[in-house]
Amino acid sequence: xxFAESRFPxxxxxxxxxxxxxxxxxxxxxxxxxxxIVTVGAQFAYWRDYAPAQLWQMLLRWHLFMPMxxxxxxxxxxxxxxxxxxxxxxxVRNWSRMGPRLETALRRGRHGVLPLDARQxxxxxxxxxxxxxAVSSTDDPFATVAATERLLAYLTGAERxxxxxxxxxxxxxxxxxxAFFHARFxxxxxxxxxxxxxxxxxxxxxxxxxxxxx
Length: 214
Known about the structure:
Layout: H1 2-7, E1 14-18, H2 20-27, E2 36-40, H3 55-73, E3 75-76, H4 78-81, E4 87-88, H5 89-96, H6 102-108, H7 121-126, E5 132-137, H8 145-152, E6 160-165, H9 167-170, H10 192-199, E7 208-213
Helix pairs in contact: 3-5
């Protein structure tokens, strides 16, 4: 944000964040200077929020196998396994131990890399006034309604909207957690982001449902 302001002063500033990236946008001290925010699949991996059909599989994979292998090797070898990227040990520890409150989970973990301490998280996020559009998909096992709205509940100072995409209405069998950014959705889904960021325009009902979170 500081770089953008130094290079392009006096502009409107927008942010888009996917998954944990959407959480990180809200933690940035400069986030109160943003004009609008879009998050996609944003949540912080609290296991009780996972989709019920995949709950046990995800618990075993993300909260048992991943941290156990990381403890043995000192990091998670995601590239070698064809599963994400290599992940540092401290990140895996925080990720696998997330609870219902973001600041509590980070207080238990090593949060020294954050630009604020755990006690400042709730007031920091509550101070954001930029309107927020949270995008999730009905087939995303991470960003369920409960998980998405758990994050939105922190943004008490902002107008908050939740777009729940329905793959069948988009004309595809699945979107999931990662596919929103795939090039095949360039004509159908990508335009939703600049429309909201630059004009504040909310998507129509033809691709899912939009609700105002309060």
